[in-house]
Amino acid sequence: MTDGKPERGRRRRNRGEAKVSKRQVNYSQLKNPFPTTDVFSADQIASMHETALKIHETLGMKVLLPEARRIFKAAGARVDDDSEMVWIGREIIEAAVASAPKSIHCRAGDPKRDVFMELGSLVFQSASGTPHATDLERGRRPGSGQDFQELIKILQHFDVYHMLPPITEPQDIPTHLRHYFTLETQLTLSDKLPFVYARGTPQVMDSFEMLQDFRGRTDDEFAANPHCFTIINTNSPRTLDIPMAQGLIDFARFGQVLIVTPFTLMGAMAPITVAGAMTLSHAECLAGITLTQLVNPGAPVCYGTFTSNVDMRSGAPAFGTPGHFQASLAAGQLARFLGLPWRSAAGSASNINDAQAANENQMGLWGCLMGGATVVIHAGGWLEGGLTVSYEKLVTDAEVLNMVAELCAGAQAGPDEIGFETAISEVDPSGHFFATTQTMARYETEFYDPVVHDYANFGTWTERGAQDASQRATRVWKEILAQPASVSLDEDKVAALQAAIATRTAKGGAEPES
Question: 3-class SS at 293?
């Protein structure tokens, strides 16, 4: 495994000499080392859960897909097809939560890249679903197929990005063919867990069939272990639209991972208080989880939330705020109340990769870490509240995630680390430790070796061009893209995948549902 640096980027430039790092690290399959932090009392969390059940029993949820309403009705829920409203009894919800798995083993292309979704695990994902991409050399632009390919290659390079999201929309690829392009890109440029769009049954079935064939799995093997995931967003407040409801049904039937995520902004599509917004989010998430378990008890589903506030002056979304932080802590409490793995998010509203972007992303990230999030989405590259992914920010955020990953290993304090014989006793009072036995044995491997941070003094930094972090990040991502693809591929499977795509394309592809 690499430490997240391109071959040249892993070298320190000192007096014109290049040196390759000798550190060997593994940033995959992390465990959160931090104790969880509560923002509400246990009684208050229980009250929020009780209120969520009351919402379902008395106010109901608008479910636009007739098939989903039929499934709820068959389970005993009260349904009014004329108004498209569904009232789900608490006993139905409680049974669904009980059947949802507490641990999910997601199978990547390489077993070393497998993702484990369970309380205590820590999984990072980059920006997702952005309509634009930007970098310092080409500027801000609508996402393209080239951008998608380049960004997937960058994500493959950094171990600390564990899952592949739909990082940007390749808008130069027609929507009825886009799922072919994004799946082929993920499978041929990465061996990490891929994302599949939930944009209607035809697109989902196309993707499942091609993924199953590429992985060489039987029908039973594919259904027994998830090989991909999707994100399902409710339309807050209290609405589940047709594509999202269909996605819940399709993925549950085939045993693939669903991350159910209400996107609630306090003061806009949710109450202005953290407690109110999280109660509504909890209720909507319970509806999605319940549908998956009614379709297929035991279907892999992840509790999700993404709650922040709006700027009440403009109505624009804000991220990395105290409200965002508190909402993440509350989400962790509610997920632990249910015992389910859960997803939260970082992110930034800044328009460029500047100090605001770094501050907001780190504030949001630490809310996720202290809340005990299993999956942290938008942990890297996210700008403009999700409108843009930044190449430079992917790199600078990876730096922070790498350092968090270093903390996951914990600090050791055995005799070798204490170093009484090899360090302390070798140095006289007022001496130094540069040449001790311990230092000489560890100086090349003991400390984190940065990807983009520059620890040089002002004079040396100036001589090197006085570049800021974003400028240095440009060099890093360009070096990554200049390297040949690192994924080992079965050429016969690649050819079969491309042939399947060509056949489906000739038949007209598959339009997304609206």
Answer: helix
